Amino acid sequence: MEQACGHGGRASSRPGAQRSGGGELSAPRLRGDTPERAGLDPRELNRLVQEVRDLTAGERPWAAGVVVVAGRGPVIAVEEAAGWAVRYSSYDPRTDAGVELPPRDRVPVTVDTPFDLASVTKLFTAVAAVQQIERGTLGMDARVGDYLPDFHAAARHGTTVRELLTHTSGLRPELPLYDCADDAERMAMLRAEPPVGVPGTYTYSDLNLLLLQFVLERITGRRLDVLVRDGITRPLGMTATRFGPCPGAAATEDQRRPWAKADRGMLRGVVHDENAWALGGVAGHAGLFSTGRDLAVFCRALLAGGSYGPARILGPDFVELLLTPPGLGFAVDQPWFMGELAGRGAAGHTGFTGTSLVLDPATDTYLILLANTVHPRRRPPDSRPRAAAATRLARAVKGT
């Protein structure tokens, strides 16, 4: 059995409300069941599954391997895997194609295969931040300089926590931290980086969640991986979700210049993002590995107002704060990857490696699509399959 990066257990699937130790009703746990029991049209879900399987077909598939999980309420109605976690040994730039492994050496994807989440990591950093807001240790409109006075550029420009969470700080999308000689040079670059755009206007930036990571670590005295583990994944029983290394994960890229930003070879079980790698694998913008089932638990907890089983990671008011447009860390109502789920408050995120997550409070549905689209090398992003899958789920709701 392939080694994963968690302990491999799945959460209990007891349906219905439960009593916690304190006597309060707890949110129902996930269980696998039929589309009909989830209140979903099985015809649309069958089409969803077939279309996802087709994404791994052919010589130049959308992704080498894919896992899709979809459901409504406490029911997982779709949990399917297709393709390969490891299909290629390398990328050949002369033929612009992957060098395929012999069939006996390939590793198939299963529903328990962990994937490099890439920017879906940002959602966990955002939840960790809102947990501190709920506890009163972090101010939504406080200035970053109040917590990180040594980050003098952010302090001088009055950058706020809200601006980091909503990508309105004006910071550029990224910095070449992977080219720095050591951690001291990387930190000096981050501390000196001023906004280049107009604060208050939207510019998506990894630097926002990186700065937020340093804020969280400064105010709590704990590393981000510990905050995520103790505040989110452990209470929810997400045993397969953690920062790397993750030896059993789906492979990503044969990472070499000029198409990549570093020369690292074929990656498996170590973070794909070059800046997260340069920072040791734990970063506010990338670095987590997870499975489809674990992410379904994460979605379910948020759709249930912050609770799952006896655990509560956020109060309902703070989940609402997290998901209310424009969203804190979460993108809201984005048809380019949410398809027809967008429009009534659907929230989620995508990851560069091929991952995506969408939860829709209006219909109590969720969709997780995990793929290694960068195996064996990165291509221009194509989110049409993500949007198509989300549209199938939206139509499965309408068809009932």
In what range is the share of β-strand residues? 15-25%
Question: What would you call the quaternary organization?
Answer: single chain
Largest sheet: 8 strands, mixed
Outline type: globular
Distance between the termini: 39 Å
Mean pLDDT: 93
List unreliable stretches of 5+ residues: 7-24
Structural class: alpha+beta
Per DSSP, the total helix count is 14
**Total E-strand runs:** 19
Gyration radius from CA atoms, angstroms = 20 Å
Helix content: 25-40%
Question: What topology does this entry show?
Answer:
Layout: E1 18-19, E2 25-26, E3 31-32, H1 35-38, H2 42-54, E4 65-72, E5 75-86, E6 88-92, E7 97-100, E8 107-108, E9 115-116, H3 121-135, H4 144-147, H5 152-156, H6 161-165, H7 183-192, H8 206-220, H9 224-236, E10 242-243, E11 251-255, E12 265-268, H10 274-278, E13 288-290, H11 292-303, E14 307-308, E15 311-312, H12 316-323, E16 331-332, H13 335-338, E17 347-351, E18 355-360, E19 365-371, H14 384-398
Parallel strand pairs: 3-5
Antiparallel strand pairs: 1-2, 4-5, 4-19, 5-8, 6-7, 9-13, 10-13, 11-12, 14-15, 16-17, 17-18, 18-19
Précis, in short:
With 400 residues, the chain is α+β, with helices and mostly antiparallel strands. The chain has helices at residues 35-38, 42-54, 121-135, 144-147, 152-156, 161-165, 183-192, 206-220, 224-236, 274-278, 292-303, 316-323, 335-338, 384-398; strands spanning 18-19, 25-26, 31-32, 65-72, 75-86, 88-92, 97-100, 107-108, 115-116, 242-243, 251-255, 265-268, 288-290, 307-308, 311-312, 331-332, 347-351, 355-360, 365-371.
